[in-house]
Amino acid sequence: MALSRFSLRDFRCFPSVELDLSPRANLIHGDNASGKTSLLEAVFFLSRGRSFRTSKADNLVRHGAEGFLLSGQATDSSGTVPVGIARTPAGLEARVAGAPAQSLAQLAERVPVQLLDASAHQLIEGGPRNRRQYLDWGVFHVEPSFLAAWRRYQRALKQRNALLRQRAADSLLKTWEPELMMAGQLLDQSRQAYLSQLEPVAMSWASRLLGGSDLKLRYLRGWPEGKSLEEALEGGRNRDKEQGSTQVGPHRAEVVIEIGGLPAQQQVSRGQQKVLAGALLLAQAAYLHQAVGRQCLLLLDDLAAELDASHLTRFLDLVQETQAQTFLTSVEAARLPAWTEARRFHVEQGKITQVV
Predict the structure, then answer these.
(1) What is the DSSP string of 117-170?
(2) Cα 141 to chain center, whole Å?
(3) How far apart are CA 349 and CA 351, in angstroms?
(4) Does the predicted TM-score (pTM) go above 0.70?
């Protein structure tokens, strides 16, 4: 998958931009605060309907405008499909192939995106939520049934938690537990199956970037081993009432990233954490292509400032191996790689121009 064309209107500092993109590499340079990261943010938002920099979409609207519009031409082996998302006074509106999207998941499915930026180390040293999101991104893109199970589980979890906060009777709590258990088991099975296939790919990529690291990805499902989810919910009901929320289940799952049998954050430096996070993201990109024949977009924000020269060279070599469409930013044009088939863009004061 690649974006052959991308348009922005009234997004961050950009009044109006039209870009014809390379299907392989798009190299973007400009001064700090010129809008390079905002361009990556716009591509990310087109895919996921949210920003990686702010939780408030209103913050993305250019000063003085009422909303913003992002659109693109998503091209794959089956053809080209127009996609778009707008922030209006009424909220978010997404379209795929000229028709209103039923959900933002349609955009995410059509335009899969992975990001590596200054916060990448959070995948390693951050909380379990970071690694669940990483895991679920991959499962969503290779397992068609995952989204329906995830939605069922979230709905049942929300209802059960609301009853817990109301200190409802056990009989009412039990009305949502069968649905919670059924959907939860489906989530757990999909996650375990995906991780078992991803791990050898991740081990290979991490070894090539970190020099023979003994990487392991260990899945903790979110309730005690040796118990069914039904038994865990039953046994923890009183505790759940005290806490006002469900304490066991797939929403408490964790992916433990280990090197040499110990947690990775104890084994590698902050700089190496970013390299390891990059390896894990590239592994997902490679496995996505291997499993379903699709490519994702790679958004790489100022890697030259994040990685030392040796790791940067190795990482960029592996990026090229993925053959994924790549957006790579840098403060200095000279620090961008001399890739063939690349298009170069310069960003300055809300304008983006192609460098010939």
Answers:
(1) STTTTHHHHS-HHHHHHHHHHHHHHH-TTHHHHHHHHHHHHHHHHHHHHTT--H
(2) 11
(3) 6
(4) yes
